[in-house]
Amino acid sequence: MAAEFEEKHQFPLPNMEVYHTERFGQNSGFKYEVPVTEDGTYTLILKFSEVYFQEPGQKIFDVKLGNIKVVHDLDIFGKVYSRGIPYDEFVEFQVKNGKVIYKGSEVSGALSNGKLLVDFAVGKSDNPKLNALLLVKGSRSSTHYDNFRKYMKALEDIKDQ
After folding, report:
1. Whole-prediction pTM value?
2. Residue 10: pLDDT over 80
3. Do 29 and 121 contact (CB within 8 A), yes or no?
């Protein structure tokens, strides 16, 4: 499907090499501690690609900042309809006076000693996984979010054909 997408839309899928390796929880979740050194708006970009399962519903998991789920019931295959196709999640939040604010509410346990706690939690089916993460200082508009939305629309068009 990746080759079909690239041929039809006349541009390569971005950073495909990032999606060729992954970290996953073996019968459990896993966590990252990401340095955050100053106040401001941030966007956490989580990069995924399903490389094992072959239909929706076989891997469903959550991602949390501190004690708040910021990605609920993620089914990567269900988002992109195929194996090996990139899918990104964009989580925008603020850091103010050593506290994380997500959608207007303070998040307990999200920031400790200058590190953001990102928790990949076992969900409804199988274990969580991740291909890469990136923390960008700035809002989603400071990222590739708009192009990603166009990419997802193109995937929808291919699925509908």
Report:
1. 0.87
2. no
3. yes
At 85-118, the pLDDT tens digits run 899 999 999 999 999 999 999 999 999 999 999 9
Q: Is 48 exposed, middle or buried (0-12, 13-18, 19+ CB in 10 A)?
A: buried
Least Cα distance to 116 among 32, 25, 4 occurs for: 32
For 64-83, b/e burial (b = at least 16 CB within 10 A) is: bbbebebbeebbbbbbbebb
The DSSP call for residue 131 is S
CATH code of the domain made up of 19-139: 2.60.120.430
Q: Give me the amino acid identity at 93.
A: F
Q: Are the C-beta atoms of residues 16 and 84 closer than 8 Å to each other?
A: no
